[in-house]
Design brief:
alpha+beta; Alpha-Beta Plaits; 3 domains; 5-stranded mixed sheet; 4-stranded antiparallel sheet; 33% helix; globular
């Protein structure tokens, strides 16, 4: 299993991501050959070695023959990618990035998502950055990506819409739910393209995970900053133990004055909001009142949605939230053929290296209802067959 850690100590941009991946070994020729499957204007990926404060890496510049093309809208870009011969994984990631960009632009400019004009973000260089990043991740065989907290600059930036504050509105929207911190750098450290790619690639932001380091790549930013080296560092490696580690957010509150019938409904909605687990814990509160502690485990990116749901759907007037580290067994989801047909199965590896498999509950439930068979019989039969 290959894992990558994006160390964004100087922010992030599309060409910095592409540069770091190329520095890790992704061939520029491979990127150009695949991206040329899209009907784009003539372009060439120019790679150079550059240094920032003594650290050298790869700098990427996308040279475009014709920069006077009209701005593409989301519909145009989606059609370009959908109709290409790129792999499903590359298509999916590329479309997720542009879909996120379209969502925030539509919200900011109060326009339909399909008709959002990307201006700078719809240019050939931005498309090359996005599709190139997806191709690079696939070429390197990266299975999981995490990233550091994100630094942001200050001041103003000039774009198609005029002079905007830094971080730009689109960038801030894309970083919703992501841990960020301010710096004294009067430059745009995080671009919308960089933010969209990073938040599509990973959902775990924090310290570097436990890993055996295999390679380190540096993507060099265009500007030479005075305060910090303008670089993106990507560390490629593999887990150093049989267990995996990540971080999640816990959101919790105590409730002692709500109709218990509401709890079931709230649980369903929390899972729709991205909760990984929802727990009701019986507790005794002040004045010896019996109550319920609501505890929700979620990714940091889903924290705001979970908090909003609790405060709007329950009688809680406040919540607590904090980050925790998790250690978990490696797992993968596969499809197994059983006497009931195709069933999704979770496969785990324990610390001794032995594997065991557990059928997906929802699949077992569906079979039990459709065939009028006891759920426990379905479960026992499938476990026996897949073992």
């Amino acid at each position: 299993m290959n894992i990558a850690y994006f160390d964004c100590f100087a922010g992030i941009s599309g060409n910095m991501i592409l540069g770091a991946l190329i520095d890790l070994g992704v061939p520029a020729d491979f990127l150009e050959e695949n991206i040329r499957n899209l009907p784009l204007d003539a372009f060439h990926i120019e790679i150079s070695t550059a240094g920032r404060m003594g650290i050298h890496g790869s700098h990427v510049h996308v040279a475009v023959a014709d920069k006077d093309k009209p701005a593409r809208n989301y519909r145009d870009i989606r059609s370009l990618i959908d109709n290409s011969v790129l792999s499903d994984r590359v298509k999916g990631l590329s479309l997720e990035v542009f879909g996120r960009l379209a969502d925030v632009e539509a919200s900011i400019h109060n326009s339909p998502k399909e008709d959002v004009h990307f201006h700078e973000l719809g240019g050939v260089d931005a498309i090359v950055d996005v599709v190139g990043a997806a191709l690079g991740v696939e070429w390197l065989g990266i299975d999981k990506i995490s990233a550091s907290e994100i630094p942001v600059g200050k001041g103003f930036v000039t774009c198609q819409h005029g002079t905007l504050p830094i971080p730009a509105p689109a960038t801030l929207s894309l970083l919703d739910g992501i841990p960020v911190y301010g710096t004294g750098v009067s430059r745009e450290l995080v671009t919308p393209t960089g933010a969209a790619i990073l938040t599509s690639l990973c959902r775990d932001f924090g310290p570097m995970p436990k890993m055996l380091i295999r390679q380190v790549g540096y993507g060099v930013g265009t500007r030479d900053l005075e305060e910090i080296p303008n670089l993106l560092r990507v560390v490629l490696g593999e887990p150093h133990s049989i267990t995996e580690a990540d971080s999640v957010t816990i959101v919790e509150t105590n409730i002692d004055d709500m109709n218990p019938e509401i709890f079931g409904f709230v649980m369903e909605r929390l899972f729709e909001d991205g909760a990984l687990d929802v727990i009701w814990v019986p507790v005794f509160m002040k004045k010896n009142r019996p109550g319920t502690m609501v505890q929700v485990i979620c990714d940091e990116t889903d924290r705001e949605a979970v908090v909003r749901r609790i405060l709007s759907e329950t009688t809680a007037t406040g919540v607590r939230h904090y980050r925790v580290e998790r250690t978990k067994l490696p797992r993968k989801l596969r499809e197994a053929t059983t006497s009931y047909g195709k069933v999704r199965v979770k496969e785990f590896s324990d610390p001794s290296g032995r594997t065991f498999q557990v059928p997906e509950y929802e699949d077992c439930k569906k079979i039990a209802l459709e065939q009028n068979v006891p759920l426990k019989l379905v479960y026992q039969t499938i476990v026996k067959e897949i073992s």
